[in-house]
Amino acid sequence: MKKLILASTSTIYGSGYLEYLLPTLKSFFKGHKNLLFVPYARPSGISYEAYTKIVSEAFKKIDINVVGIHTFNDKQKAIEKADGIFVGGGNTFVLVNELYNQDLIEVLKNTIDNGTPYLGTSAGSNIASLTMQMTNDMPIVYPPSYKTLGCIPLNINAHYLDPDPTSKHKGETRETRIKEFHTYNKIPVIGLREGSWLQVDGNEVVLKGGLTARWFVKDKEPIEIETNHPIVI
């Protein structure tokens, strides 16, 4: 049975890297002492080594050892043998492009579907969706496809922002962009606010964290989903 945590972000205001999630991750990865980290999204262009070190320092606090996938010659086998997997945030286009270039999409999906626990934050959560089309990132590279892992039957918009009624900015809101997406696509979308995550057990998807999430379905008005509420497709 597949098990995933898909978080909007790795860091919330006033907190360290993954700090707000560590109690949940300690329980989620119980019995799994080694974690394979995929740093391909690498925010701000930092090296894979530097990114992996940041992740490793966080997971040391819950006694989990982290190894970067970039250190393995056979990356497909590294995924297949992984005790647990974490794909971090950064640029989703860069991440998806690299996963396709390394021929890792199918093996990653199959490994997750077979029960290896998976953590995604931001871009790492986006790729668990049916497609990556709800990313907020700039298209700085051109991946072979927008199709991603499809571990959940919806798309995630991470870092969801509500319209600010006091703002003088007249550009598109996040809600407007999601509605534009639904002009051409039927895939439902969840807007995850910072500090919220989806917990997936088999086919059950439940909103976790202290905030509601925004739920968008084509040709319907968006609604708020309460925390601890299952997502019904």
From TrEMBL:
Its EC number is 3.4.13.21. GO terms for molecular function: dipeptidase activity; serine-type peptidase activity. Belongs to the peptidase S51 family. It comes from the Bacteria. GO terms for biological process: proteolysis. Keywords: Dipeptidase, Hydrolase, Protease, Serine protease. The keyword Protease applies. SUPFAM superfamilies: Class I glutamine amidotransferase-like (SSF52317). This is Dipeptidase PepE. Coiled coil: none annotated. The keyword Transcription does not apply.
